[in-house]
Amino acid sequence: MQHIDLPVIGFIDRWSERISKWLMVIAAMWAFLLAFYILADVIGRFFGFPLKGTHEVVKNSIVMIAFMQVAYCVLSRSMLRADFLLHLIGGKSERVINFLGYVLGALFFAALFWGTKDPAWRAIVTGEFEGEGALRVPTWPARWVVLITSALLVVNYLMLALKEVLLQPETGEEPLPVE
After folding, report:
1. Does residue 87 fall inside a structural domain?
2. Kindly report the CA angle at 125 between 29 and 147, in degrees rounded to 5?
3. What number of CA atoms fall less than 13 Å from residue 80's CA on the CB side?
4. Residue 1: what pLDDT?
5. How far apart are CA 163 and CA 5, in angstroms?
6. Which of 69, 93, 108, 148 has its CA 20 to 30 A from that of 156?
7. DSSP per-residue codes, 5-74
8. d(Cα 166, Cα 5) in Å, to the nearest integer?
9. Is residue 1 domain-resident?
10. Which residues are paired to 175 by β-bridges?
């Protein structure tokens, strides 16, 4: 991926990319292990011994897996978008539309961060959980993954917006002249 040459911004850009990649890898491994957990529950149900709390574990895991993968999805520009329309428009108009989309993405995840911060803290302080009986699953991990990845997504979208303004579209490496 292309990086911006400005020292502080380049540092933030490289670290957000590294963190996003690691979150994607962790999420993929988690999804793989979750498949075996579900398989064990299905086999257990067949023999009359289901795993307790499977519903709660799977429900919270899917939220965390999805959010952990979104950060890299944004960086690799793989989020849902109509590329064929953008390529038809081309030129500066395409860059303006990309820039606006990135800013809107940053605003969306900033709003999600803002709306999630209090429930995330409350989940830890009150010991919030899901499920009754044999297995009670704490909700704070899922809430904190949403909170942290929302912050990372704001950074990722802002980095993409800056790249849209500062980098040449042909090579992706040479900065535009700044006056």
Report:
1. yes
2. 45
3. 0
4. 61
5. 10
6. 93
7. -SHHHHHHHHHHHHHHHHHHHHHHHHHHHHHHHHHHHHHHHHTT-PPTTHHHHHHHHHHHHHHHHHHHHH
8. 10
9. no
10. 167
Global confidence as pTM: 0.82
Q: How far apart are CA 24 and CA 81, in angstroms?
A: 20
Sign of the C-alpha dihedral computed for residues 161, 165, 166 and 169 taken in this order: positive
CA 115 to chain CA centroid, Å, is 16
Residue 33 tokens, joined: 């292990």
The gap from C-alpha 102 to its chain's centroid, in whole angstroms, comes to: 14
- Tokens at residue 140, please? 């704070």
Q: Give pLDDT tens digits for 12-31.
A: 888 999 999 999 999 999 99
- Token duo for residue 74: 């944004």
Which of 34, 104, 28 minimizes the C-alpha distance to 66?
A: 28
How many domains does one find in the chain?
Answer: 1
What residue numbers bound the domain in which 40 lies?
7-166
Q: Which of 30, 61, 28 is nearest to 130 (CA)?
A: 61
Residue 35 lies in a domain: yes
111 within domain boundaries: yes
Residue 71 Cα to chain centre, angstroms = 3
